[in-house]
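Dear U.,

For the methods section draft, I wanted the exact inputs and outputs in one place so we can describe them consistently. I've listed the two proteins in the order they'll appear in the manuscript figures. Please don't edit the token lines directly; just add comments below if something needs changing.

First protein:
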Amino acid sequence: MSFESSCQDPILPSDTKHILHHGLSVFTAALFITGEMAGTGLLALPKAMDQAGWYGLISTFVLCMLSGYSGIRLGDCWTMLREMNPVYSEEGSRSPFQVIATEGAGRIGKYVLIFVIYFQLLGARIIHQRCYQTGVVFLLLAAQNLQSLFDAIHAHLPVCIWIIIVAALLLGPCWLGTPKDSWPIAIGAMVCTAIACVFITISTLIHYRTIQRYEPSTVTFKSFSFSMGTMFFAWGGSAMFPTIQVDMRQPHRFHVAVLIAYSILLVFYLPVSIVGYVVYGSKVQDNILKNLPKNFLRYTVEILITGHLATAFTIVLNPIFQGFEELTHVPKHFCWQRAVLRSGIVLFLAFMAETIPHFGAILAFIGSSTVSILGFILPVVCFVMIKVHSTQLVHEKLFETIFRVLPKWDITLLAIALLVGLYGALASSYSSFSDLINPTSYVKPCWLNSSSADEKPSNLSLF
């Protein structure tokens, strides 16, 4: 079985494959993937490089390849289901990942996926009070960035107030239906990240001329585990993939969108990672913006990252929105029920952000493994099981079918992706354990202390 043939859609004649005449093109789908994955995670990559040394560069390419491969196989799952059930070809699904998990791993897979996805809505990765991931954390990061920017012009507001403002501003964009209805948002997210990467690299190189040389940190098993945990988050995001694929004009070409997106991500990640590591060495911060001089470039990057957070918020939460709408039988067209339901979810996230402003270390510890489960483990398991279910002969055993229908190179990559995913889950949980036992990770909610979400004040000024 060739790579290309595994992505074909033989159930439809060649002249009727364009099911969604107003759906996403391959390139637009790639922009959605890029805009959803690239963002705040890249700010921690220079630190991850310092923790892993130049081995981090190898890890970057390996994780890029395996994450992309797993994403392609996740897309193949949906393609196979469309071949087996014409309903999915004609109507699609609001919760395609849930359908894939159910068909591939049964009720256990379904409930594991539901738990992981909805926990990731709240879950986060905490790196010395800097949060990276989805849901609540997007609100927190956007609020923190806005506070930093307005503090620079001496217009201070607590982060707790900014959370409410950001949530209110994001209500409208969240009412857009599916990815095909919000393609300008995907373009905005990617453009913000692209310009931010260029400005970070330029600012770092300019700063290099005025600072002393710093030696890199010594690489240990613990530091390497921390590094891998961060890199897994940078290459996570496949929970959104099936939702994007369903909205494509040619869903069977999703693999092309993944290849384009991951090529763009490498272009974003490598300069920031390498330049930040070489210039700052052991002095690189968990968030590289803290290393940059306080000038126009840094504040511009903060604005761009905030723009990315605002646009990516609606992209990342779209599968959650559609899942709840499927559960509550909300019509697929725009209606007041959609507006009420999605507004309620956003307001719930804002309430959680106000209640746990620095985000609970317990949630971080449990949520740290969700990216590995969604990005590596479930796609591999579901692809293998759906392939077996669709091709297994009578009285044929599982492994006999696997070795009959899959080439050896495919089995090897699937096994490596599964093992790396398991390692990533353990490494991420291990690296977040220190936050779990650190008393400073727990703070009072905003409604008891309006400044509890604030970091230590700094004398910032644009002038």
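Second protein (the one for the lower panel):
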Amino acid sequence: MDSSTTRPLNITVVGAGIGGLAAAIALRRSGNRVKIFESSPHNTEFGAGISLQNNSLRILNAWGFLRENLNSVSFDGINIRDAVTGEGHSVTFPHLEQAKAKAINALTCQRNDLLEELKRLAVGDNDCPGPPAELYFDSKVVSCDTEAGSITLESGEAVAADLVIGADGIHSTIRPSILGESVTADTTGLSCFRCLLDATKVADHPTLSWLNEGIEAPWNITTVEGSHFSSFMVYFVRKRELLNLVAYYHDRHREGKCPFDRRGRGASNESRYPGSFSYFSAEFETLLDLPTVPTTASPTGILRWQLPAMPLLSTWVKGRAMIMGDAAHSTLPTSGRAGIAIEEAVTLGVLFPLGTTGDEVSERLEAFQELCKGRGDLVNSESVARVDSTQKKTMSDRELQVYLVARDAIKTAEEYSRLHFDAAPSHGDVD
């Protein structure tokens, strides 16, 4: 197809998080014109850690991302420990050497580093094919006309497009326009706090020597009381200069009792952290003595929030508009949310190649939903079932892990496109 005479689509992306920037990259690579509208005045993402596994790294490699820009740490498996006894084991990912040979071996990094790399690929004037996306901060979207493919900003400005993509998170402005009603996330009874810890101080605490044992991988430190579980998820980022700590616990404000109140130890931390983790073994509780790293989002460096999950939605698409990522299927952060959003983004890049007409948008959005909604809904349900005893799991933890990371979203979307649209673009690349 002669790209010099083919009209690109005008595409509006609402939200400049991982999903929104990834969608902009994929659609830019298809040769489309992309505008991104972000409500915050600048990047205000909390500088927490994130993991990327085979499914998302396969896509990022195809987009030309530079792994070194993530200042990452290897993620070769998982270290599992009982939070009370300290007993446990380490498991190395199968086929690790093959993944390394393909440069899709998993990693952990700081979220801000990933966002900066995605932003470079989306809006940078670099070797990435397609025109650079335009990114507008401090541009809050207040409404969306799904049939016209337009949004209205808080300033009153209307922006028309061929396609509107709502990648604006759990409090999405676009979602009510898709569904015709307001649907909010359900509480799960689970809360967490997360922070970055100064890993250069680990040597000052001999009880933390376990951080340099086992394999190069996150530590899942868990205990279960009845139907409730409590957990630390700990891993290095920023070339091991920082430790990312996420602590999950059942919310005492929702259920009337915090499970971390058995003994008086750890009182010095109770003013810094929500609740006491005093019945965790001392080798793990000592993590809370490490200094935190302040961020723009929190002067103390500690953020706490309840962890909701979206109910399964009837649809993700309507007219010329759609939702993706957390706006469509926000779930618990234990289930590879970033990877799923990146998969959805590359699927859009394949389904909307240069030459797609405005009249074809609705049909291709239905194709996107067919390819992605079932997977997003399943991951949502399975993640909730792992913390809510009233929900039934349909697969084991191992089966879920394989399901999450084994998918080749590029190949899946190209095969679908070839079958249904008589085309198989190479994941959106244009000359």
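Candidate sentences for the figure legend, describing the second protein: Confidence is low (pLDDT under 50) at residues 255-271. The chain has 13 helices and 19 strands.

Thanks,
Y.
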